[in-house]
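Dear Dr. K.,

Following up on our conversation at the group meeting, I've run the structure prediction for DNA-binding transcriptional MerR regulator from Streptomyces griseomycini. I'm pasting the input sequence below exactly as I used it, so you can double-check it against your construct before we proceed with anything downstream. Let me know if the numbering doesn't match what you have in your notebook.
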Amino acid sequence: MASEQIGYRGPTACAAAGITYRQLDYWARTGLVEPSVRPAHGSGTQRLYSFRDVVVLKIVKRFLDTGVSLQNIRTAVRHLRERGFSDLERMTLMSDGATVYECTSPDEVHALLQGGQGIFGIAVGVVWRDVESALSQLHGERVDTGETLIGHNPADELARRRNRAV
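The predicted structure tokens came back this morning:
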């Protein structure tokens, strides 16, 4: 099934991105990373995140772990959103701790490194594959029908059998 047809509830998005539910809720309420499949409408409704949303959540987490300010992360996420998140998996995001740069070629990475300052990078393709692997073992939800999709977790045989019985 195409990734655009699958959504992930908050706890699944948290598990795949390595964040707490409290972080997820705060980032959604403040507009940092909002669920693109289904936002929450009052209490009791479930947010539904797309695969790309979960990748962005994990990127935000990595930037926070390396000390980039939330303000600079917001600027980077805004830039990604304006770009339409296209070609995410081929992108490298670099930061000197104060600014986040988008690099799409080795020449751009090399040019940044020539500045002589400390720079770290996030190869988005690696994050993409990490999230893909994590989500393949977790539950998703069909966007059109709401049907729960069971991940490929071999330890979850009972849940798979229950799903087939319904």
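Two things stood out to me. The longest strand covers residues 6-9. Strands lie at 6-9, 48-49, 92-95, 100-103, 120-123, 140-142, 148-149.

Best regards,
J.T.
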